[in-house]
Design goal:
The protein is of the alpha/beta class and 279 residues long. It has helices at residues 32-41, 59-62, 65-72, 80-88, 154-159, 174-179, 184-191, 199-209, 229-242, 266-278; strands spanning 2-7, 14-19, 22-26, 49-53, 76-78, 101-103, 110-112, 115-121, 130-136, 142-146, 165-169, 216-220, 248-251, 261-262. Bound molecules: zinc ion (2 copies). Residues 56, 58, 124, 126, 148 line the site of one zinc ion.
Length: 279
């Protein structure tokens, strides 16, 4: 399995997961032209993408969705509530001649080509927002994606347990947010438990989720006003060092990560090692 982060932050979000020759997009905040350019820069023809999973209907996650679905006929996988919100935005179901709708129930994996896609309900100020856990059906490798998450609930921690790669929001430094230029109502909205995840809360979640088989962590959806890559990295680094974690930590820029990364299944690797030791 391979993961390519195409865009991340309050302007646009999109990443693509590749496995067994198939591709699944998670969020479509880029317009079709930029999206196609970003995909092709990684050698991925847009028409080879087999569907798009949507976390929620905020424009930085769906800005390009309507046009992309009309152009490439991608089915849309998301919660019933987000489908309804998207219909209001004009991204309609199959009867409207646009995108095919696939409803993701909370915490139940849905098979989609080479993937299993599981949406997990998260706290955020949208209709029915979800984190995504995407599993490669052939290798068993799993990647979890949660951006725009007010707090990492017990439900999310359980769903993300023992994943092989993790893309998690590290939105703001609380001190920078409090002292920063945003008006009070916006500061409150961001800091609320239905808002965005602070560096400290991200670090606490990472300390719980870090395990030996977790090969990659990507800090995502960084605020360009209330955070810096250095501050986010330092905060996560402290938490991960305490947890004794030794994987690869990357910080997603607004235009994503410069290269994709490969994710294997640690469970499969451990099983193989067990078989080798028994032999
Ligand atoms: Zn967002
Ligand atoms: Zn949002």
């Amino acid at each position: 399995m391979k993961v390519f982060v195409l865009a991340s932050g309050s302007t646009a979000n999109a990443l693509v997961i590749e496995a067994a020759g198939e591709r699944l997009l998670v969020d479509c905040g880029l317009g079709p032209r930029t999206l196609a350019t970003r995909l092709r820069s990684f050698g991925i023809p847009p028409e080879s993408v087999g569907g798009v999973a949507i976390t929620h209907e905020h424009s930085d996650h769906v800005h390009g969705l309507k046009k992309a679905c009309a152009k490439w006929r991608w089915p849309v996988l998301t919660s019933a509530g987000t489908h309804a919100a998207l219909a209001e935005l004009g991204v309609r179901g199959s009867t409207g001649g646009g995108a095919r709708r696939i409803v993701l129930p909370h915490a139940q994996a849905v098979a989609h080509g080479a993937f299993e896609v599981m949406g997990v309900r998260i706290p955020h100020d949208a209709a029915e927002p979800m984190a995504m856990v995407v599993t490669c059906r052939s290798s068993g490798a799993r990647v979890a994606v949660a951006t725009d998450i007010g707090e990492v609930s017990g439900t999310v921690l359980r769903a993300f347990e023992k994943v092989d790669a993790l893309v998690l929001e590290s939105n703001h430094d609380m001190g920078m947010l409090v002292r920063g230029p945003y008006p009070p109502h916006l500061k409150q909205r961001i800091a609320a438990r239905t808002g965005h995840l602070s560096n400290a809360d991200c670090g606490a979640a990472l300390a719980t989720l870090a395990h030996r088989g977790l090969s990659h962590i990507v800090l995502a959806h960084l605020s360009e006003v209330n955070n810096t890559p250095e501050v986010a990295q330092a905060s996560a680094g402290v938490a991960l060092r305490k947890a004794g974690w030794r994987g690869k930590l990357a910080i997603a820029a607004p235009d994503g990560l410069a290269s994709g990364f490969a994710v294997g299944s640690h469970a499969d690797a451990e099983r193989q090692l067990g078989l080798a030791l028994e032999a």
